[in-house]
Amino acid sequence: MFKTRMTEMFGVQHPIMLAGMNWITEPKLISAVCNAGGVGILATARCTPEETRENIKQIRDMTDKPFGINQILIGPGAKENIEIAIEEKVPFINYSLGKPWFVDDVHAYGGKVVGTIAIARHATRAVQLGCDALIITGHEAAAHGAAATLMVLIPLVASMVDVPLIAAGGICNGQGMAAALALGADGISMGSRFMVTKESMVHDNFKQLCLEATEQDTLYDNVFDGMDGRVLKTKEAEAMTKRGFPIVESIKGALLVKKLFKLSFLKFAGLSIEMVRAEEGHPLMVLARQAVGNMKHMKALNEGDVEGGILFAGQCCGGIKDVPTVKELIDRTIAEAEETLGRLDALKK
Ligand SMILES: Cc1cc2nc3c(=O)[nH]c(=O)nc-3n(C[C@H](O)[C@H](O)[C@H](O)COP(=O)(O)O)c2cc1C
């Protein structure tokens, strides 16, 4: 058992978080993690406000343990989803990209705000803005890590801020957890590893692809959704890296976003400008390219199309060798971390 600033702040048994993963973090997976003593996070990027509320209700039907939501703050629907989470008094609100305008509202009901960063200097700013804890994403991670790995980031960030730190990227077992704690983290967040569990909705074809992948079988590029990100190597992912900027697909994507979110041209243009102005300065077409990425992700997750689909996944797929239940995975990770720290302790003279 571990008692860290993360278990204390989140009121959970184990310092293990289910990373927010758009599409994948459904109530069934989230509640399984919460009921096994970890922290489940619902990624709401895919959700309309009504769906966000419904998902929160479903989670509460399946667990009485604390959980959180994850929302990317730029793009349509972000503000509305955060407002629903605040109305519902969701215990933890985890955001990435953009500024957390809702800190006081969350603190008012006793909730916590958890910022996600991938660049060390963003840590100080996030804490100044009121974040209670930070998720640090390394280059190894699925989706949007930046240039530095956790080996470098965790001690650096730990020396800069004094809030609970949660390490995300490349961790799929207790050895990784022990390493993250040794580097200065208070807990871990796992995405790819939880993706390959019995409760995960990911199509069996892609679970199998993760099981077969080595640590070399991911691609890191900005062509998948407009931001630097890591996906599993598939035929389509490789083709996308060769194709370069997908202008026709991006225009199709832009129109799809406009239609899906029922945006007027004025609102669509406003959102695009908002994205450019965001702290990270994303180019105008990111939203459209995200729509293209989303469509290819749906092909992977729902249809199991290993040729035409793409799927965010991390380098740690190389170390994923089975499909356990969430509880088996969490119990095993804790036991491995304890064993690892015991082994290190025995090295002392
Ligand atoms: C399929 C998939 C979807 C993801 N969607 C989101 C998301 O919506 N928001 C977010 O902040 N991170 C997202 N991530 C990144 C994870 O939150 C986390 O940072 C990453 O999985 C950690 O790396 P790991 O997979 O090596 O554990 C996603 C990751 C995956 C695999």
Architecture overview:
It contains 15 helices and ten strands. The protein is of the alpha/beta class and 349 residues long. An eight-stranded parallel sheet has the order 1-8-7-6-5-4-3-2. It folds into two domains: 5-202 and 324-345, Aldolase class I (TIM Barrel); 205-303, no CATH class. Flavin mononucleotide binds next to strand 3 and helix 9.
Please give a handful of descriptors for the protein shown.
binds flavin mononucleotide, TIM Barrel, 349 residues, alpha/beta, eight-stranded parallel β-sheet
Count of beta strands: 10
Largest sheet: 8 strands, parallel
- Poorly predicted runs of 5 or more residues: none
Can you write the helix and strand succession as a string?
A: HEHEHEHEHEHEHEHEHHEEHHHHH
Through-space gap between termini: 25 Å
**Helical/strand content category:** alpha/beta
Strand content: 5-15%
**Can you tell me the CATH class of the largest domain?**
Alpha Beta
Bound molecules: flavin mononucleotide
Strands in their spatial order, largest beta sheet: 1-8-7-6-5-4-3-2
Number of helices: 15
Short description:
With 349 residues, the protein is α/β, with parallel strands linked by helices. It contains 15 helices and ten strands. An eight-stranded parallel β-sheet has the order 1-8-7-6-5-4-3-2. It has a two-stranded antiparallel sheet with strand order 9-10.
